Amino acid sequence: MLKPLAGIILGLAFLVWAVPTDAPAQLKVGMVFDSARVEDAGFNQACRAGLQKAALSLPIATLFRESARREDYRPNLQELVTAGCGLIIGAGYQMHADLAVVAEQNPRVKFALIDSVFAPPKPNVQSITFDVDEAAFPAGFLAAAWADLQDPQDAQVGYVGGVRTAAVEQFVAAYRAGVAHYNKQYNKAVKVRGDYADTFEDSTRGQALGAAQIAAGIDVIFGVGGTTGAGALRAAQIHGKWGIGVDVDQYETLPEVRDILLTSCLKKMDQAIAAVVQEVLTDKFGGGRNRVGKLANDQVGLAPWHAFEDRIPAWLQQDLETIQQAIRAGRLATGWPPSYVLPW
User: Fold this and answer.
1) Same domain, yes or no: 93 and 175
2) 119 and 7 in a common domain
3) What's the domain range around 154?
4) Mean pLDDT on 279-297
5) Are residues 55 and 162 in the same domain?
6) 86: which of 198, 286, 288, 298 is 20 to 30 A away, CA to CA?
7) Residue 216 main-chain phi, psi, to 5 deg
């Protein structure tokens, strides 16, 4: 009993534990975050909440490790191996290479990585990805329709992305395709413009980019990228425009923008994380495969309307439902992968 206690005391400065009080822990589950701060009102925060939620109903102990920079990924992952974790989850595509190395060095430990796929697959690693384009397409349609309703003479929508990677571009390409779908369906000409901040961690830069877009005539901003995207939503709130959130229901995580937030594109990471943990607990871990969240399994989608419940017209709500049904059935292309050449 003294050795585990000593280990916990020595690690208090770095490790956070959460053990359910109603059942003995049978499995240690660790999570390493990418270099964006955990309290980002988006991706990292949702990953942590997902594992914490799983710990409330499953017999596990949870251990979290933050990364101040990319060089921390590998030692953080290895630290969780040393701590005896049977499942280690990497929160973010940026640790792909480091998780690959640690997984190969520790074949008896099970790993999961969110937002990245291994090719060829690794037998002790499960990928968790989301077809976020299936949520971003209707979000783009909504943005275009709302801009057209509010500013019919010069309707424009925008987006502020973090780093231009596949994980972000999947949102953006489908968002743009959703705008194009609205224009085609209603014979409109809503314009789209966007910017990338080259960082997920700069709220001030995100807000500045959002403000510049608004000055150029943007009516609705899609904030795609951690605290940077959150900054763009704050710009919309400050300047009396509207926004769409990402990853989580940002009506809940960014209360200061509630009055201008039309919806958010959801990645239901809590469901995916709980499913992987359950697989490990029941010896059914699907190593080497990619777990995909999509509209059809209700792991991506649009957040509730909240403050806009009575403001989104019935015809628009019906259009959005029809669009999502068509995407589920495979009758409507989302624009991802895009027809244009990606810069990677």
Assistant:
1) no
2) yes
3) 133-268+298-328
4) 96
5) no
6) 298
7) -85, 0
In a domain, 342, yes or no: no
143 shares its domain with 17: no
Instruction: Please report, for the domain that includes residue 110, its CATH number.
Output: 3.40.50.2300
Q: HSE (CB half, 13 Å, CA atoms) of 157?
A: 30
156 in a domain, yes or no?
yes
Burial 171-210 (b: 16+ CB within 10 A, else e): bbbbbbbbbbbbbeeeeeebbbebbbbebbbbbebbbbbb
**Closest to 43 measured CA to CA, from 138, 168, 160:** 168
For 101, other C-beta atoms within 10 Å of its C-beta total: 13
* Site of tokens 């209700």: 298
Contacts of 12 (CB under 8 A, 6+ apart): none
Distance of CA 123 to the CA centre of its chain: 25
Q: How far apart are CA 317 and CA 305, in angstroms?
A: 10
Specify whether 108 is located in the same domain as 182: no
> How distant, in Å, are the alpha carbons of 127, 131, 300, 309 from that of 115?
7, 10, 13, 31
pLDDT tens, 204-262? 999 999 999 999 999 999 999 889 999 999 999 999 999 999 999 999 999 999 999 99
